[in-house]
């Protein structure tokens, strides 16, 4: 949240980072504006720099009687209207796989930070704590919240969402690079906690030509101890067998100053291939033939190579304990099928504004749109669905989706493409006049 500007009643500029760097000033200025903000008109209340439909989005100045302190809070039911990069942004869980989690898994703070319950234990030494797989009671209906913990895939999706990388605007063209994406991911990690630790403390991006990221990886390994656990995130170049029966993974930029070997045990590689079949199929192609990138979030054990006579002394040996893969387009937009990729690329080419809801850890029975157009006359977005299979099980699933969309948005109130018929992609709904 560093550098986030808040406008207080009367036009006074206020830095959100003062809560950390100058708490006395933070309390003094919010206390001085507390009564004024409560009585002010909506447009004159405290606010960030976000706008929705040309109007400002107010914030609340609240007083905590138990701690005798003041804080800023998002206006009720307006968190999803803020920009994705705003600390006060709160996604609408009903429009993504976040709806599959029980309430305790993602806990939203009033300052925009979140705390999550992970399926792995973030320990400095030793193996990760085992996962409690005790099942929840059976659900009454398909799609009900039932996930009690967030896996590495859920964390990867949360980081991508918090970094604003699930949405697209025409002005992003030419600026959404892999290095920019990883920089935004690193920033998003400063607003996510798990087991009392900031994810950013353990998160090390790997990006081509980024010396700062490379130095950070070595600094984290030195700080955490001779053997520790941390997260690596980057774009996978290769995943190949090694002579010992395991696999080696190369992330883009890994050879560029990181001085790091990355090993994937055969059992973990096989699990990743089963769980992320689209990503595995993409990596099986020659790099020049790939139409997309594969992102990896890897929870690794890392240690420095200290053997005095080794030519690799000072390098890092990292072994993957668990992780997740995600396939993204050239514009860094996630997708789950070749048909979704075609739609995402077509929307980008058409200069449309839209977002891509992510699945997180939701089971397949949870219904949410493949894409949501944000530049139509409909204030809550225009849902889009791609039908890409013809098997009997999917036919039942398709009928459930169609019934849901008709009941929620009205017949004809949502866009769809049956990609199995060989038909051309239908025209997109008209955008608002600019």
UniProtKB/TrEMBL annotation:
<feature type="region of interest" description="Disordered">
    <location>
        <begin position="127"/>
        <end position="146"/>
    </location>
</feature>
<dbReference type="Pfam" id="PF06666">
    <property type="entry name" value="DUF1173"/>
</dbReference>
<protein>
    <recommendedName>
        <fullName>DUF1173 family protein</fullName>
    </recommendedName>
</protein>
<dbReference type="InterPro" id="IPR009553">
    <property type="entry name" value="DUF1173"/>
</dbReference>
